[in-house]
Specification:
With about 375 residues, the protein is of the alpha+beta class. It contains 10 helices and 5 strands, in the order H-H-H-H-H-H-H-E-H-E-E-H-H-E-E. Helix content is about 65%, strand content about 10%. The protein is elongated, with a radius of gyration of 44 Å. It starts with 6 loop residues before the first helix and ends with a strand.
């Protein structure tokens, strides 16, 4: 520009060229799609018009053809073929007003400008592809880690279930074999005590009976402990819920969230309550949805058993059933059993029939 222009013309063309380059760069990269080399949107259309105006200005003022390399960079970036045709026309018109060496230099820099723009676009696309590949890889790694954790949890659950089953088997074997043999030995010792009254045989037989009785009590205690530990609350409730699933009339959702070991008496109570509720639903309910939840909170256990119809309004349970409410909702044996179990653990019981049959229980954690 300095060799072809002078004075005010040089300053005006130089500043306008730099301003157009900066404005076009902003417009072409502002809202550009990450997956397309071709810009889209209102800002890109504005750049399209500005580039055409710049090419027309070169035709009107042929000496400004020295700004064509900058213009060609934006033309290549925006795929503006109209501005390209006008720029070529301006370059041809500038051929007559520019020295040959200057014309060839402009032509060389124009080719370099197009080449740099294409390489820049390729680098941008490769960078976008790299980031997308990295994101996909990270997502797949996280998904794989999640699947591995699920597999490990499933394996741990399977091992835990096997341990509980083995404990139950051992408890049953001890009860059926060793327990019965000790009971027989106790009866035999008692008979011998009744027959042999003379000393020191009577005292020794009494000591033997005391030892056998202690062993029997210890075995009973061990068997009860093994049996209590072998009870899996989630497995037990899911097994009872299969009664509803197998009927084909209910969609059952079971949610068990227990982090710590539940006391044996609480575990037995919840299993008994679940059995009463599930039996009642199976006999009397016509609602398709059943929720069974047992959740551990910091200070209490919470249990909810609810059957409902999500497609009906909140009318009374009697109206939705089209018949009288289940016998379970009265003070019958089922409700009495549930109430006694809850009260034995200092818990609270709430039963509602507004939206299906809903049993809500809270049991404090000692």
């Amino acid at each position: 520009m300095y060799q072809t222009l002078s004075g005010t013309e040089f300053i005006i063309v130089m500043y306008i060229t730099l301003a157009l380059a900066a404005v076009n760069y902003y417009l072409l990269t502002r809202n550009r799609s990450d997956y397309s080399m071709k810009p889209e949107g209102l800002l890109e259309k504005l750049s399209f018009v500005i580039t055409i105006i710049g090419a027309i200005a070169i035709i009107i003022f042929p000496q400004a053809a020295v700004a064509i390399p900058n213009l060609l960079y934006d033309i290549t970036k925006s795929r503006n073929y109209i501005a390209l045709a006008l720029a070529v026309m301006g370059l041809i018109l500038g051929f007559s007003s520019l020295p040959l060496t200057m014309f060839l230099l402009i032509l060389l820099i124009s080719v370099l400008s197009i080449y740099l723009c294409i390489r820049s676009e390729m680098a941008s696309v490769m960078s976008t592809s790299f980031h997308r590949l990295r994101d996909d890889s990270s997502e797949k790694s996280e998904r794989l880690l999640s699947q591995n954790l699920k597999l490990e949890k499933a394996k741990d659950d399977e091992i835990y279930t096997a341990q509980l089953s083995e404990r139950n088997r051992i408890a049953r074997e001890i009860h059926d074999n060793v327990g019965h043999m000790l009971s027989r030995a106790l009866l035999q010792t008692g008979a011998m005590l009744a027959i042999h009254k003379e000393e020191p045989v009577h005292t020794e037989l009494a000591d033997l009976r005391s030892t056998l009785d202690t062993a029997m009590n210890n075995i009973r205690s061990s068997v009860h402990d093994l049996h209590d530990e072998s009870i899996d609350l989630p497995a037990g409730i899911n097994q009872m819920a299969n009664l509803l699933r197998d009927s084909g009339r209910f969609n059952v959702n079971v949610e068990i969230d227990i982090e710590n070991d539940m006391p044996h008496n609480t575990k037995y109570a919840i299993l008994g309550i679940a059995r009463e509720c599930i039996t009642n639903i199976h006999k009397h309910s016509s609602n398709p949805m059943v929720d069974i939840k047992v959740i551990e909170h910091p200070s209490m256990y919470q249990m909810v058993v609810h059957d409902y119809n999500p497609n009906s309004d909140s009318s009374s349970y009697k109206e939705k059933q089209g018949k009288s409410a289940p016998e379970f909702s009265s003070e019958g044996i089922g409700l009495s059993n549930i109430r006694s179990r809850v009260e034995s653990l200092n818990g609270k019981l709430s039963i509602t029939t507004d939206d299906g049959f809903r049993v809500f229980i809270t049991i404090p954690i000692s």
